[in-house]
Structure formats: structure tokens, C-alpha cells
Design a protein that fits this description.
By secondary structure, this protein is of the alpha/beta class. It is built from 7 helices and 4 strands, in the order αβαβααβαβαα. The radius of gyration is 20 Å and the shape is globular. The two termini are 35 Å apart.
Length: 174
């Protein structure tokens, strides 16, 4: 009995911690969006692609903002944690619905949805009814690929811009 009571208190504490962390993310996000808008007003170019991570669902608004300016919006799913909150705690309170709204907004408006979860397509389909823009990139490596690396052909090297700032994305680890 005491163990169950203690476990319940831990679950409540964890749930309240998640709410607090997300409120902090919401505050951080509002600062981030303000800085982004101010930065873009001074720029002549908009990024071609924006990759938004679902670590904080509020960053979906950054992706939507940049998509409205012409950028491709890639939504990288690290965890389906509004769903996790519903399943583990059997919650459907206003806060979880609020977070689910941002998750759905990201799924519906993303040009591409990527994640490492094998069942991501099924989850996205249950929410927006389509899977043609969902891709699973499993976390693994094939040593055979790395043992047989070849030098890039000059034709490809010549296509890499020399006078531009280039950002590479290596993906999620863990």
C-alpha cells in the first residue's frame, strides 16, 4: 500500500514537473520567436528549409512562420509525448489538449515528418489521416557502409557553394 501511494506521488510530481518545464519552454519560445522575427527583418534571404524538433512543441510556430515566408518545413519527432502523457497517466486535461493542438498543427503543416520511431507513420495517420510525408530514419549504423566510403566525385564537390554559410544536420542520437 505504501509503495503504491509513494509511486502515485512520484507520478504526480513527474506530471507537475512536465507542466512546469513546458511553461518554461513556452516563455523561452516567446523570446525565441521575437528574436527570430527581428533577425529576419534585417535579412534579405529566408532559409530554404527549417527543421523543427518536437522536443518543445511550441517551436512548431517557428516552422509555420518560416513556411509562410517560403521555407520548407521539416518536423522532426523525437517523442510523441502528448500521447505518452495520455497513455501513462490517462490524462485528457486542458494542458494535454493544448500540447496536442501544437502537435497536430505540426503534423498537418509540415512538408516532411521524420522520426526514429518505427510506428511513427501509424501515429501520424491516426491524427491527420495521411502518411505520405512521414519517414522513419532508424537509429543504427551499418559498418559495411563506413568501411566502403568513397571520395565524393568532383561533379558533386563542384555543386557545394563556396561562398555560402552551410549548416549540416546529422540527426538525433538517442
Amino acid at each position: 500500500f505504501w509503495y503504491i501511494l509513494f509511486l502515485g506521488d512520484v507520478c504526480s510530481f513527474l506530471f507537475l514537473s512536465v507542466i512546469l518545464i513546458n511553461l518554461i519552454f513556452l516563455f523561452y519560445y516567446s523570446l525565441q520567436l521575437g528574436i527570430l522575427i527581428k533577425y529576419l527583418k534585417n535579412q534579405k534571404q529566408i532559409p530554404d528549409i527549417v527543421i523543427v524538433s518536437s522536443l518543445s512543441l511550441f517551436t512548431v510556430l517557428n516552422g509555420l512562420f518560416l513556411k509562410s515566408k517560403g521555407a520548407k518545413f521539416i518536423f522532426e519527432i523525437r517523442d510523441i509525448w502528448p500521447f505518452t502523457l495520455k497513455e501513462l497517466k490517462k490524462l485528457s486535461n486542458l494542458f494535454v489538449k493544448f500540447l496536442s493542438y501544437f502537435e497536430n498543427l505540426g503534423y498537418e503543416n509540415a512538408d516532411i515528418i521524420i522520426g526514429t520511431m518505427p510506428n511513427l507513420k501509424r501515429h501520424v495517420e491516426s491524427i491527420i489521416g495521411e502518411t505520405n510525408k512521414v519517414y522513419c530514419v532508424p537509429m543504427a549504423c551499418d559498418p559495411i557502409i563506413y568501411n566502403s566510403l568513397e571520395k565524393l566525385p568532383n561533379e558533386l564537390i563542384s555543386k557545394i557553394p563556396k561562398n555560402k554559410f552551410i549548416i549540416g544536420y546529422a540527426g538525433a542520437i538517442g
